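User: quick one, sequence for these tokens?
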């Protein structure tokens, strides 16, 4: 292809530019590509030219080219709207007179080349970076709160766990469609996120002893970039995710089969397998000869114990959920409606920086509370009824999960109080058991004993208590918590707990309306769920700032309920802090919870997390509730 004399092209472009200057004297023209002004006439060139010329144009970074094309289309549309018919005709005439098609092609190429070389490094990788989102991330982090070196060490540790000469294939979560063109909110697969830090769909990560991490990245097509924006491609994989190798996903069928052939053992997550690699003949052959095994046993092993930076995010996620649920509790007296409370808790979580809820909030009023994972959230809450809210949010990949049950009207009936107290005492007893060496199963068995005994005393259960108990509570006392709500499902509940593991403690009672027992208890559901971090010497309750004593809840509802729509102020969106007490022997984890019209100091409900004690109420806190 003939390239026209660059000097000539430059003159012509100046010519077009000056023509525009005549049309609009205010237009500032310069060829500095950093200056957006000069791009004003490029769209015209583009809109008059055919797309063919772009396709034939010099090799440029596809992501950049696509982005430029998108921007130019938009700009050209905008600009054409601003121009009169006369102005456009004048330009067209000018174009006809001075430029042949070949010349136009040259101009376009030149323009692209200039911009390609002068734009410099791509800073948008389709997800936040420390450069694009300094408010969210520090330098050296791949995702907020997690540094590049931590991602590298996670991969190293996984390779150490795998047998020699292994190959692990981890696919990104697929985009699920709600309708033809509308996707459900995308959520990355936890293993893929844990190992790569990449938050977008369409990729396949391959980890091996031979080459380290190799990522097959989706290729940004111009159309997708225009409609969905930039995505991370091969460059991002190398630069940002620090892969040893990276290829476009279209090359997977050429490269991956050889990698599979060279390895002696193949691992993948059976539940999230995608046809991108399972359709490969080499993969199927390997599966046929029994070379393929499940990877999640290994990834869950790694994810089970949280690192200090993960724990920081877990604590923050829990603090957000606590503050959000407290605000929702205060809202519930004025707005006793499941749907409104669900909306309120999500709003409060997201205003505090959570990306999404960890699961659909459970907001069950009255008998709906006895449905364990109730999520219709569409009913009014009757005066005097309890409401059960099980909520959690997701902060940069880390989930929270807590439940409180209360009476929005501001007072518990004696029957409600009787059952509530049993659940609360069980909650506290079980938290006391949380320490290294204990297992979820042991704590669960203990909770069953406590509840069976209590329910018999109250008179709900009579003979055959154990069998009937399971009708009233078929759930486990808790589960592991982390990047997934039911985290690390491959790890048995019999496994002795270790420092750094986070579990939930969630005793409950769910008496259906149809239950064959005393009428006064029918249609009642109560659950009190806390998040517990196992520490070296005991445990720390991450959700300790959320009140659970009846007298505290009643005091809050009767004295601090919102009577009108409450708007968040800056100080209310706060993060937990840890400080050392004056004697330097206790670390205080303070989760500020600001209540409307309260002075800042008095409004801080804080938990003093001592070893072996479950978030005792501090004197400060007690004073607030009196
Ligand atoms: Mn839970």
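Assistant:
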């Amino acid at each position: 292809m003939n390239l026209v004399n660059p000097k000539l092209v430059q003159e012509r472009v100046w010519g077009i530019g000056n023509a525009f200057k005549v049309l609009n004297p205010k237009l500032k023209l310069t060829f500095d590509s950093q200056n957006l002004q000069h791009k004003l006439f490029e769209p015209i060139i583009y809109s008059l030219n055919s797309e063919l010329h772009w396709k034939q144009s010099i090799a440029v970074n596809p992501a950049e080219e696509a982005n430029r094309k998108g921007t130019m289309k938009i700009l050209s549309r905008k600009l054409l709207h601003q121009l009169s018919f006369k102005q456009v005709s004048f330009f067209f005439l000018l174009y006809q007179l001075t430029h042949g098609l070949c010349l136009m092609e040259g101009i376009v190429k030149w323009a692209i080349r200039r911009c390609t070389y002068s734009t410099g490094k791509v800073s948008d990788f389709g997800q936040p970076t420390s450069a694009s989102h300094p408010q969210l991330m520090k330098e050296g982090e791949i995702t907020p709160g997690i540094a590049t070196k931590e991602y590298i060490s996670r991969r190293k540790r996984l390779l150490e766990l795998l047998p020699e000469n292994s190959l692990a294939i981890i696919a990104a979560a697929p985009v699920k469609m709600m309708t033809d063109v509308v996707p459900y909110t995308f959520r990355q697969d936890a293993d893929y996120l844990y190992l790569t830090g990449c938050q977008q769909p369409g990729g396949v990560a391959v980890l091996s002893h031979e080459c380290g991490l190799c990522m097959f990245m989706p290729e940004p097509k111009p159309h997708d970039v225009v409609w969905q924006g930039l995505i991370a491609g091969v460059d991002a994989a190398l630069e940002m995710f620090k892969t040893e190798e990276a290829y476009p996903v279209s090359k997977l069928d050429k490269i991956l089969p050889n990698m599979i052939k060279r390895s002696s053992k193949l691992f993948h997550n059976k539940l999230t397998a995608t046809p991108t690699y399972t359709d490969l003949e080499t993969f199927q052959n390997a599966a046929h000869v029994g070379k393929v095994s499940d990877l999640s046993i290994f990834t869950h092993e790694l994810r089970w114990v949280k690192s200090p930076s993960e724990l920081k995010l877990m604590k923050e996620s829990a603090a957000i959920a606590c503050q959000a649920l407290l605000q929702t509790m205060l809202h519930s007296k004025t707005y006793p409606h499941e749907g409104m409370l669900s909306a309120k808790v999500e709003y409060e979580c997201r205003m505090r920086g959570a990306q999404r809820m960890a699961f659909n909030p459970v907001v069950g009023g009255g008998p709906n509370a006895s449905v364990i994972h109730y999520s219709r959230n569409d009913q009014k809450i009757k005066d005097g009824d309890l409401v059960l809210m099980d909520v959690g949010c997701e902060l940069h990949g880390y989930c929270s999960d807590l439940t409180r049950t209360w009476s929005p009207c501001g007072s518990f009936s004696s029957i409600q109080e009787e059952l509530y107290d049993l659940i609360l005492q069980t909650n506290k007893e079980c938290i006391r058991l949380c320490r290294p060496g204990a297992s979820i199963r042991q704590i669960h068995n203990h909770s069953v004993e406590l509840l069976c005994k209590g329910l018999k005393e109250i008179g709900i259960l009579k003979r055959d208590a154990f069998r009937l108990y399971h009708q009233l509570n078929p759930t486990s006392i808790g589960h592991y918590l982390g990047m997934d709500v039911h985290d690390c499902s491959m790890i048995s509940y019999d496994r002795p707990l270790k420092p750094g593991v986070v579990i939930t403690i969630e005793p409950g009672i769910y008496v259906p309306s149809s239950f064959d027992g005393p009428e006064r208890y029918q249609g009642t559901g109560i659950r009190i769920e806390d998040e517990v971090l196992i520490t070296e010497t005991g445990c720390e309750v991450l959700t300790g700032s959320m009140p659970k004593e009846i007298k505290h809840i009643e005091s809050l509802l009767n004295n601090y309920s919102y009577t009108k729509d409450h708007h968040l102020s800056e100080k209310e969106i706060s993060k937990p802090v840890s400080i050392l007490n004056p004697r330097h022997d206790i670390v205080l984890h303070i989760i500020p919870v600001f209540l409307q019209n309260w002075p800042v100091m008095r409004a801080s409900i804080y938990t003093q997390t001592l070893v072996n004690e479950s978030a005792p109420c501090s004197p400060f806190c007690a004073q607030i509730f009196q």
